[in-house]
């Protein structure tokens, strides 16, 4: 009873001491956070759409087929599957760390056959079996490591932070793959629009060639006009053919992103280009909550900070409470009997007295690793703000450019109309018509190229903002 009381008292003392933990508690480092976005002034802000599912930012483009493709990506993308498997590994490490707080129970049973020399060679010669004995053992043991200095708790803290970082990495990978798919899809749809434009242009140029050939046969136009009309027609047909391989590349990229072989995937042409959305913008501080790469960088800091405590706890002794009991006998017949029982109970303190500076070096390493994660976190934040500012500036400038290019296109169309009327009236030569047609087509394609750039920049801005409009986006999207 007295021994049991002392063991119990020792266990209670260990539990009380375990309320403290060696090592620094985590505090988020300061970062340079602007009060507002520099490029937000004058930006056409839109309020978050209540009808939009939280996290489904691709629905801003109003394309049902795009929504379906993103759903397939979320379920079958192999890069996302890799990150998801890594996250499950991190979760398993957390469960393993939690298990270290509980006692471990071991059961063993076995038989040993041993011999010991008698010290006399003559005795050994007289009987080869002298000194050989069998022993049967059965033992149940319980041991528990008291987390006196917080080493186990710091280890759990580090693994939990690593799991949260892995979860953020999963969200970042999913966002990256979604962004890539949406960009490929939008570029493919712009190519479809360019194809329709060139097909209509080929029809118009074919009419012009036919009209010019008729005029040449009537002696009204020269052979040079026919050659110019035919050159223009064939060049446009070549441009139309060139779009085929460009479209195939985007189609194949989409197939891989949704986890199917390119040969088994076809995307029919659409009759319109998805709409260019107005992206709701938040304050800079929300960027720190929304972007999964920033969240991952911060969780890495938490894990590195906890590892400092684990390293420092190595300077202190480990306290283990153990208890064992069982049966031991030299014969199998009366193995499990009361006279053959044995038991042991007691605490054990163990610590390293000298290791040649290994523990000190490990503490220095963990401190340096933490400093590295702090620098990486701050750089990730700065890169995030830079990306948002860049894409906002790009969209703002392109918005102004789109208005000017539309005016240029309207003027080119009007000039072409007037030129064709003058040519039909015999007032000008066909070369003037060719020049006007080339200018009009160039402006048509420039407007489409600009629309493509604006659509891509909008996707990049959404991804730079974290793929949503509130801090709970990534969590709600995954769970």
From TrEMBL:
Transmembrane segments: none annotated. InterPro entries: MdtP/NodT-like, OMP_efflux. Keywords: Cell outer membrane, Coiled coil, Lipoprotein, Membrane, Palmitate, Signal, Transmembrane, Transmembrane beta strand. Residues 110-132 are annotated as: Disordered. Residues 66-93 form a coiled coil. It holds the Pfam family OEP. Residues 1-23 form the signal peptide. It is found in: Cell outer membrane. It is a lipid-anchor. Residues 115-131 have a biased composition (Low complexity). NCBIfam families: outer_NodT (TIGR01845). Belongs to the outer membrane factor (OMF) (TC 1.B.17) family. This is Efflux transporter outer membrane subunit. It comes from Pseudomonas sessilinigenes. The lineage of its organism: Bacteria, Pseudomonadati, Pseudomonadota, Gammaproteobacteria, Pseudomonadales.
